[in-house]
């Protein structure tokens, strides 16, 4: 059981006048773990009973059912991660993408099997598969659409030294909407190079990067348009572990699907720190800044220009309805350009 006090000075990230939102979380959970010489199974069943007061009074329940399985032999390791998550759009999706969606509950199923085989003491081969299915409560009424994502990676691992690891892999991802009045299907193969270096036992740095070749097809009312683009994905992080505290700095660019029915490109800079005050009380601070642009060029019958329409302290003002079809207002890139802004979350949690 854990409890959490919550404060947010702009829960919906709106530029309009608003009041702060206060709240509390009560989160019962049960964990289970099973282990043999070769097989490990772990899972969790958790709930969040959330009450908000002040500027955005609300009450809802989140559900988390993750599952992890690993099976090892002398040279091979098979893994499976996945599960079911029911949370609101201002939690997991906002933290991942930086986009403010309409406030509603999201159901997300994930299945991610993997296989790793060590060819020698230093060389290894790794492959993964990804499947995700997202749906939104009253989504179409709120201008949100359900979507599915599947894909995979395959590549080689190399233990360069005791402190250095290098990985080179190829990737493929396919995204499509499933219940929208318009149709969007996109796929993007690519390549990725990742390097990890351990400076000390507690200090580690990771850097990665590679291209993505994005092809998308948009369909609406018998009209179809195909587009092709190339974008670079990259990231770097620095993590320091202490006896009672941890710190992490990160800078990333990635491609994510969105409930708006399009692919987005998110640039994120973040800092996270936590400190164990006692065995049951942990204080943490998470600060993030986002720059977000549409990667697929057309959605819902209107063109989404590559501008910083969505930022972490701004509701995108370009959502409206015309003739029953949700659209995005088109604006010039210069008019929508905003500086990098930050979103701070102050969390004090107590668990027992």
Any chance you could write out the topology, listing elements then pairs?
Blueprint: E1 2-8, E2 21-27, E3 29-35, E4 39-54, E5 58-72, E6 76-88, H1 92-97, E7 105-118, E8 123-136, E9 147-159, E10 164-177, E11 183-187, E12 190-198, E13 203-220, E14 223-241, E15 245-258, E16 262-276, E17 281-294, E18 298-299, E19 302-303, E20 310-311, E21 319-322, E22 325-328, H2 333-336, E23 341-351
How would you describe what is shown here?
With 352 residues, this protein is mostly beta strands. It has one domain (2-351): Porin, CATH 2.40.160. The protein is built from two helices and 23 strands. The strands form three sheets. It has a 19-stranded antiparallel beta sheet that branches. The chain has a two-stranded antiparallel ribbon with strand order 18-19. A two-stranded antiparallel ribbon has the order 21-22. A hairpin with a 4-residue loop joins strand 7 (105-118) and strand 8 (123-136). The relative contact order is 0.11.
Q: Please count the beta strands (DSSP E, at least 2 residues each).
A: 23
Assembly category = single chain
What's the end-to-end separation, in Å?
A: 6 Å
- Name the helix and strand elements from N-terminus to C-terminus, one letter apiece: EEEEEEHEEEEEEEEEEEEEEEEHE
Largest sheet: 19 strands, antiparallel
Provide the helix percentage. Answer: under 10%
- Choose one word for the global shape: globular
CATH architecture call: Beta Barrel
Fraction of residues in β-strands: over 45%
| The CATH topology | Porin
Mean pLDDT: 81
Q: Give the helix tally.
A: 2
How would you classify the helix and strand content by structural class?
A: mainly beta
Number of domains: 1
The CATH C-level class name: Mainly Beta
